[in-house]
Design the sequence.
């Protein structure tokens, strides 16, 4: 990849703005050998499924897909379903839910480790491009949607001990655009979530404006991976 300038989105107290960001130099590409594990993140309604479809189609090889966590008992899906829906946003309940939420986080972390070992890693080693929607990152950015009301440091600690993807793709748009597609959250909530997604503690992250055609974003993702 050349050192051309890519327009990435960043979030401030005034909303979302587009700022020029240098694309990764060739030495900064994520070289993955046979296959790769890519996670799509961003608010509900930003277009993650559309980009995942475009990425899988453009790749043209063997692929796998899962939403949140893969099934331990069955193979990865070849592509996301057209009618895939995100979990409904939940509101925080009583303090007693914190204990249940912490158990849910621990269970999801254990399942993520096992599913990665028996599904994702073998698929990548066999040459597949594995694409996931959010992986375990939802516990950090969308804890209420996963009914986790525990401390944020606990979710961050879980991330540090889990397998990391080869690349995290953060899709972003203005709060107004996302609000027009998903009515569950306020503009303030969407702006906060955009900020949180942009600050994931994951160094292997690239951000793209969701206003770009999915096929163009998919091409850039493959370039980042060196595929």
Sequence:
């Amino acid at each position: 990849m050349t050192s051309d300038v890519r327009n990435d989105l960043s979030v401030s107290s005034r909303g979302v703005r587009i700022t020029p960001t240098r694309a990764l130099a060739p030495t900064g590409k994520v070289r993955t050998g046979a296959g790769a594990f890519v996670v799509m993140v961003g608010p509900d309604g930003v277009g993650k499924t559309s980009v995942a479809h475009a990425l899988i189609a453009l790749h043209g090889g063997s692929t796998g897909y899962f939403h949140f966590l893969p099934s331990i008992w069955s193979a990865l899906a070849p592509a996301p379903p057209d009618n895939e829906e995100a979990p409904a946003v939940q509101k925080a309940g009583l303090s007693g839910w914190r204990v249940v939420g912490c158990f849910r986080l621990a269970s999801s972390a254990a399942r993520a480790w096992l599913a990665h070992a028996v599904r994702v890693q073998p698929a990548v080693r066999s040459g597949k491009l594995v694409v996931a929607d959010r992986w375990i990152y939802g516990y950090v950015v969308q804890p209420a949607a996963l009914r986790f009301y525990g401390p944020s440091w606990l979710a961050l600690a879980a991330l540090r001990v889990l397998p990391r993807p080869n690349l995290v793709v953060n899709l972003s748009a203005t709060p107004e655009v996302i609000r027009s597609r998903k009515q569950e959250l306020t503009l303030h909530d969407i702006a906060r979530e955009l900020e949180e997604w942009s600050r994931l503690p994951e160094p292997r992250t690239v951000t793209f404006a969701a206003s770009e055609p999915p096929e163009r974003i998919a091409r850039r993702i493959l370039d980042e991976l060196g595929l």
Remarks:
- Helices lie at 48-59, 97-125, 138-141, 152-161, 175-181, 187-198, 214-225.
